Amino acid sequence: MFKNNSARRRMLARIGVGTAAAVAAIAVMPGLAQAHVTVQPGSVEGGDFSVVAFRVPNERDDASTTQVRVTLPKDQPIGSVQTTAMPGWKISTASRQLDKPIEVEGEKLTSVVSEVTWTAAAGGIRPGQFQDFQLSLGQLPESGKMVFNALQTYSNGEKVNWNQVSTDPSVEPEHPAPVLTITPAAAENGATPADQNDQPGQNEQATPAAPSDSASNSILPLVVAGAALVLSAIATLLARRAGRRPSPEKASAPTRENPNA
User: Where are the domains of the chain?
Assistant: First the structure.
């Protein structure tokens, strides 16, 4: 019976260790999925000037990011591209000629900025860190999407090109391109023209929006992690009780009577 209790304690201990490992894996997964170059914020209003930032994380443990180059969409020329000073980084731009001039604030432009490069003067983006690179862009299109190309260079000479666009929205490529979503500008009363045409009547009620997939995906890991922690606690409690439980042979052993009593 002692051997059976010992084997049971070992089995419950293994269950607890496996559960803890599963919890750790779930906690790490969301961070790994977001470790790529993105535009912050991901959505802005169109038809005007906006300041956006390209967020660049360092994905290497043995090298720093020493250069970031962002190429603007060729089919969507931006007349005004302005940078801001960043301590520890040198900034340079390149221009290209347009086949057809564009007009920005009453001025016709025949060339626009095609790419912006940030080069680290010292240090760069170290392992486990990220950096935001800001740009002022204008005049933005009225609506749609702008797909950029970001080239990330590491101190060991490695280059990562973030330029992939998936044809299936449910599948994320290995090196997705930074994408800026442009929404129609809001009207004076705070609603877009489409919202004004689709407003419900006095006797009608607006249909509540269904929860998004991103919200479901963010809640699911928390639920699984909570269940795993509960199972781990139960396994540990059972292991302790099995270790303290007396042997049935010792508990049921008959007592001997004293013949001299």
Answer: 6-35, 36-185
Q: Specify the DSSP class assigned to residue 164.
A: B
CB-CB neighbours of 97 under 10 Å? 9
Each residue's pLDDT tens digit, 142-166: 999 999 999 999 999 999 999 999 8
Q: What is the pLDDT of residues 57-93, one digit of tens each?
A: 999 999 999 999 999 999 999 999 999 999 999 999 9
CATH 2.60.40.2230, applies to 36-185? yes
Contact 79, 109 (CB under 8 A): yes
- Closest by alpha carbon to 26, among 245, 240, 219, 253? 219
Residue ranges of the alpha helices (H) in the chain? 2-33, 193-197, 213-244, 248-251
Hey, which bits of the chain come out as E strands? 38-40, 43-45, 50-57, 65-71, 80-83, 89-104, 107-120, 130-138, 144-147, 149-154, 159-162, 179-183
What is the pTM (predicted TM-score) of this model? Answer: 0.62
Please return the burial class of 56, using the count of CB atoms within 10 Å of its CB with bins 0-12, 13-18 and 19+. Answer: buried
| CA dist list (Å): 221 to 17, 19, 242 | 19, 14, 31
